[in-house]
Amino acid sequence: MKSVNKLFLLLLGLFTLGLFLAFATVGKGKLLLTLIFWAAYVVLVTVAFLIGQKFKLFPEPILIIIPVFLTGLGLIELYALQMKQINGVYEDIAFRQMAWLAASMITVLVVSALTRRRNYEKLARYKYIWAILSMLLLGLTIPFGRSFGGARSWLSFGSLTIQPSEFVKILMVLFLAGYLSEYGQYLKDAHPKWWLRPLKALWYLGPLLFVWIMALLLLVFQRDLGTAVLYFGVFLALIYLVSGRISYVITGGLVAVAGAVISLIAFDHVRMRVKIWLNPWNDITGAGYQIVQSLFALGSGGILGVGFGAGRPEIIPSVHNDFIIAAIAEELGLMGSLLVLAMFLVLCGRGLYVAKRTGATFGFLLASGLSLLLAWQVIVIIGGVVRLLPLTGVNLPFISYGGSSLVSSYATIGLLQGMAGGNDYHDG
Asked: What are the pLDDT digits (tens) for 297-307?
């Protein structure tokens, strides 16, 4: 344990020295403010890590080290945007994210503490509660939600704005893992001609399909199709993990294609996003402006980037949310972007390792679902920014601005740490 602490502090020292230099660069003479901001980050993550290590809340150190480093990188970009003060759009954005980081550190400690020593297995008992709570949270946004970027996905409480779908992602994984751990064997052992026994199939699959369809319908009403894509991807992944049958994935893929066609016909904003995806150059000053500017940023970064604070990511609309990877690519170049992707790869891979070592079906499905949720989210948003996929508008975990996204991402890490701390967990 002491060696882990020393390693973390060494890495943190080297990383935060780089952070300080980066903050000093983007601060452009505001040394005192930069020092305070840098010190706040160092204190928050160091205290959280030491508390976690003291009470054995972080049995997988890599699962906390990588997230705090990614968050630090995101804070640099947000701090640079804040310093530029573009028409007040990014005013106090880095300070607000720092406050959310404090809430996230508390969250990861509390969640890990509550779920360690196999307490996470108790979560499977409340699978229907997670499902009902998910639908209630999503449903509240329809009459009371606020719209940003075409999606009605936010709830406002005075100056506080929360995106329920960020937390519903975790609740849905909890439901799916709990349900499939109990009834997944039916999917694995089902006769190929299961449709000849529709009543039996409906008995086992009915609640699962009902909750899944209701969640997707609510997301469609919210016009938050990006989150719907995340839910669907994780749903298919867990179905495959529990059954081992590729036929379910193929069938789900066909359903996804049908849903995409229907969405393309029914929703104007979906047609617009597909049109922009296919050829953003037709309207580079209008609908295609955002993606075109992000492509310019990706190209101008080159191999090593232009340096912290030297780029112009502020000209990209919503660069602090959906397009923050474009800012990183411009200022750190291809090598910096690949480093970020490598860190996400290690993070998700370690999460799957935790899944393998839990020794329980529910733990395996839960850890796998959470890890694949992070991975799929990274693929969807980065694929949209580089034009491999239509842009769906989801945050890059740990890096993008957003309190709900940051807290829910660290809650995911807390659950993984709690599972790694279980009595049936075997490290190797």
From this structure: 888 888 988 88
